[in-house]
UniProtKB/TrEMBL annotation:
Family statement drawn from the similarity comment of this UniProt entry: Belongs to the DASH complex DAD1 family.
Molecular-function GO terms, alphabetical: microtubule plus-end binding
Swiss-Prot/TrEMBL GO biological process terms: cell division
Keywords: Cell cycle, Cell division, Centromere, Chromosome, Cytoplasm, Cytoskeleton, Kinetochore, Microtubule, Mitosis, Nucleus
Subcellular location: Chromosome, Centromere, Kinetochore; Cytoplasm, Cytoskeleton, Spindle; Nucleus
InterPro entries named in the record: DASH_Dad1 (IPR013958)
PANTHER family the record matches: DASH COMPLEX SUBUNIT DAD1 (PTHR28025:SF1)
Organism, as annotated: Macrolepiota fuliginosa MF-IS2
Major localisation: nucleus
Organism ancestry: Eukaryota, Fungi, Dikarya, Basidiomycota, Agaricomycotina
Name of this chain's protein: DASH complex subunit DAD1
Domain of life: Eukaryota
């Protein structure tokens, strides 16, 4: 019976060591996974900042383009092209009825 008890205790200790080793590996793997997830989240925040910056730039350029076309519509034309308006005078759009 002593041999069976010794065998049982040795086998129990061996299995306990295997389980302990398995839990240590699991813990180190989950720690590595957590570090990778934190890196990914950090990169995502960096991309959000960059995306926000580019969106602001896009909006600024878009508004700038609208202002340029609006100023072209109201700005006087070049002399000699027929679009020049003398200050204080407006071009007549009425036709001669002769």
């Amino acid at each position: 019976m002593d041999e069976e008890t010794n065998f049982f205790e040795r086998e129990r200790d061996r299995l306990a060591r295997e389980i302990t080793t398995g839990f240590e590996e699991l813990l180190s793997s989950s720690n590595a996974l957590n570090r990778k997830l934190e890196e990914v989240l950090g990169m995502t925040r960096e991309y959000e900042t960059i995306a926000s910056l580019w969106h602001s730039f896009y909006q600024l350029m878009r508004e700038s383009g609208k202002q340029d076309t609006a100023s072209e519509d109201t700005a006087p034309g070049l002399p000699g092209t027929g679009g020049h308006v003398v200050a204080g005078m407006k071009q007549s759009t009425t036709k001669d009825s002769s």
